[in-house]
Amino acid sequence: MKRKIPGKIPKELSFDCFDDGSLLYGKEKNRLPAMGWNSWNAFGSGNTEELTKAMADRICALGLKELGYRYVVLDDGCYRPERVNGRLSNDEAKFPGGFRALSDHLHKMGLLFGMYNDVGTRLCAGAEVGTCGHEKEDAKTYIEWGVDFLKVDNCYYPYDNATFSDPENARFVFAPNIRSVRIESGRKPNGRNVTVLKAADGVLTGPSARITKEGYATGIGTFDGTGPKHSPVGVRSSELIFETDSPEDRDAFLSVEYATGKRERVGQWLQIAVNDGIVFDGLLDPTDSETSFVFGGQVKISLRRGRNRIRLMNHRRQENTLKSYATLLKYLKREAPDKDIVYSACEWGKTQPQNWAKKVCDSWRILNDITFRVGKDGDPGHGDWDGDYTCSVTSQYNKAVIMDGFAGLGKGWNDPDMLMIGMEGLTLEQNRTHMVMWCMMNAPLMLGLDLRRVKKGDDLYRIIADRELIKINQDPLGIQAKRVFSSLAKQRPDRTYIRDTDRVDILAKPLSGGRFAISFINLGKKKRKGRYSVDVITLKKYFKEFMSEDFARAKDGTGYDILDVRTGKKELSKEGVFSVRELSACGNVTMIVTPAGQEKVPAPRKKR
């Protein structure tokens, strides 16, 4: 089969427009994190219509619907393995009644209906029904089925070396190795004016690019964010930037000395920008090897008098993925402009979606799956508290906790994946802290357990139905907590990426009504004794724009009412210092702090 070539990137989807503040194609605004249940962790590809209805019944019987858990989402394994006449259709053995009937059933219960697909050619479990090339007809189908939530994955993506895709697709998302650029302009009595700029004469940005000892630039592209090794904060995409002076406005011709590859870090696609505009965006002719350098064809450019900026880059890993997610949204809104659909990008943080997903999505996964050991045939599945790779509560938390700057009502939410509460492998204390972490970080609250295992009032129920924690997650201000202290951070705890779990973190989150939620979290597996504290001065340092005068002044007057969320115990603090003296293993103490005597000010609810 002929390999597909990525299409042109519209200006509004380009890397240079990621931070322009615009939302595209009718994306909904001011939506709070979604709450509901997803089938994957409980049943994997084995979910059925019968099981889905049973979960919906339990959501209602347990009173979870009234707490906000309304989305019932079918994950992978629900479609036929191939399209029928080009359209998606239900697996008749698993979902004999069809998806429209199931959607109607859930809607009559006061619940909302969610489904799953993929921007690739196939789904992760292998069904050849991905949305790639079928966005228009799939949008029509989802509207016909009454879908309220779409989780869209990133397997078998033809324009990147995503999981299960051809590794050679890396040629689309990395630039070739670059040794120099050549600029020719005008004519002198003895020939053309020629300037040659060596790679070492330029400036490299981003974490993945470097100049080799042989003098060429390599690794120009967007760093793969799927693994746990690197921080999500900071510049994630690399460029080679040259500056050159021109005595006058003039036309010139630019050629690049390059060598191509087809693997992570060395590709075949190059983007060239001169000053404010892209002058080239496409595949270069392949070379014999990654060190067989040749000069490419000349590209006409316009230089202006004075300093000029030339950027050699490849942002296609992000731009291509954004375009794919944007295309489906565009057709959904074209099909039903007023239909309210939560749009969840599940691309595992590969393309650093915190940089671009805010333009079209309501949430974006920040890392790989939280567990690969999902439930099946009565097995509840297994979750880990910590681990060397991505599959654990703390590996997700470690990234998401420093990503508050990417989230908000005008953007969307970092998604550290489904809750593993109720799966084997986690203690009750770890489950409680897991819930606290997700609520403080404004993560979507998607339950992932078989709800038939939960009884009203039991330990699991008290965790997932904790009203105070849910109110923190769903607070109308819509502000993700910030880490204001970590015992392993020498400076900037709000931005330092830390993977060692032998530590204590303190998170703070502004709430409506002039309040703050503060959570002391022990990530380690041993009890901690000793005083951990945060004061009003520190809170003001991080949250000056959100701190009311009443809150700031209370330390010199009335003091603060403190509610322990878990125990319900209340106390008064006069000093404006909030502290704990002991934390259980993998435990937390979470409190809500209000200026003493201040009545709670209700605020209007935002969309979920």
Layout of strands and helices, then pairs:
Elements: E1 35-38, H1 40-43, H2 49-61, H3 64-67, E2 71-73, H4 99-108, E3 112-118, H5 135-144, E4 149-153, E5 177-188, E6 191-198, E7 203-205, E8 210-211, E9 217-218, E10 239-246, E11 250-259, E12 269-274, E13 277-283, E14 294-295, E15 299-303, E16 306-313, H6 316-335, E17 342-345, E18 363-365, H7 393-400, E19 413-415, H8 428-440, E20 445-447, H9 459-464, H10 467-473, E21 482-486, E22 504-511, E23 515-522, E24 528-535, H11 536-543, H12 549-553, E25 560-564, E26 570-573, E27 577-583, E28 588-595
Parallel strand pairs: 1-2, 1-20, 2-3, 3-4, 4-17, 17-18, 18-19
Antiparallel strand pairs: 5-6, 5-11, 7-10, 8-9, 10-16, 11-14, 11-15, 12-13, 12-16, 21-22, 22-23, 23-28, 24-27, 25-26, 25-28
Helix pairs in contact: 5-6, 8-10
Explain the overall architecture.
- This protein has about 600 residues and is of the alpha+beta class.
- It has 3 domains: about 10-160 and about 320-475, TIM Barrel (Alpha-Beta Barrel), CATH 3.20.20; about 175-315, Sandwich (Jelly Rolls), CATH 2.60.120.260; about 480-595, Golgi alpha-mannosidase II (Immunoglobulin-like), CATH 2.60.40.
- It contains 12 helices and 28 strands.
- A hairpin with a 5-residue loop joins β8 (about 210) and β9.
- α5 packs across α6 and α8 packs parallel to α10 (about 465-475).
